[in-house]
Design a protein that fits this description.
- Helix 2 crosses helix 3 and helix 3 packs parallel to helix 8.
- The chain is an alpha+beta fold.
- The two termini are about 40 Å apart.
- The longest helix has 27 residues.
């Protein structure tokens, strides 16, 4: 895992602005995580991808994940914080072998599989297409609701970090619900906030001193901070 310079943060943010969230997460991993020459994060099981994203979040910004969500019943804003180290302590897949259910073998889903169903608006159809994408060596059968639930449970057990759901309760109306945790959204929000702060620093110092962006970014964070303190006195 490699640290990013301030200039690299801006480059990463700019490249990711027009990308789908799936591609933003892969962009971040590709820029910082070393792998074998033939290996792409797009082909990693989702649990491995999510673990790497959580590690990046901890390495670049902070261990815990802070966010807010609106209550689906009354709209009240609910802030929450997740313990990053506890999230990373979850078990990794014990095997990369296919998951077998009713004689059908399924490999663990990857980002490429999610990309194939990203445009699907029907939840059941999306689940079917995802399973068919992961099905190995068989003709797709007719899927019953029981089949979908059983296979989904088996895949979740085989790759615990592929999906993280958290239970929430509204402080106003006491409504309880489960929310899916998308680690890539947490990471991108931090990248975007950092990039926008850097742009503000560049604008503020360039306006006073006439320095170029490259000259300002070549300064250490401490020096930039001190110059900004003098500018704002």
């Amino acid at each position: 895992m490699r640290a990013l310079s301030s200039a690299s943060v801006l480059d990463l943010w700019e490249k990711g602005l027009s990308l789908h969230p799936l591609d933003r997460s892969l962009l971040a991993l590709g820029a910082t995580v070393s792998g074998t020459p033939r290996e792409s994060p797009a082909d990693w099981p989702l649990g491995r991808r999510n673990r790497a994203l959580a590690e990046l979040h901890s390495f670049w910004f902070r261990p815990n994940l802070q966010a807010w969500v609106a209550c689906p019943q009354c709209g009240e804003k609910l802030e929450f914080e997740l313990d990053g180290p506890s999230l990373l302590a979850r078990e990794e897949p014990s095997s990369m072998e296919p998951v077998t259910v009713n004689g059908l073998a399924f490999r663990l889903p990857t980002s490429r599989d999610l990309a194939r169903v990203a445009g699907e608006t029907d939840a059941r159809r999306a689940a079917v297409r995802l399973l068919e994408s992961c099905l190995e060596g068989n003709e797709p059968p007719e899927w019953s609701e029981e089949d979908l639930e059983r296979i989904g449970q088996k895949l979740a057990l085989a790759d615990p970090m592929a999906e993280t759901r958290i239970g929430l309760q509204c402080s106003e109306c006491r409504h309880e619900w489960n929310e899916n945790l998308d680690i890539s959204e947490f990471l991108w929000a931090e990248i975007e906030a950092r990039a926008k702060h850097l742009l503000w620093e560049i604008h503020s110092l360039a306006a006073v001193y006439g320095w170029s962006e490259a000259e300002i970014l070549s300064l250490s964070e401490m020096r930039r901070s001190r110059y900004l303190e003098m500018v704002n006195q």
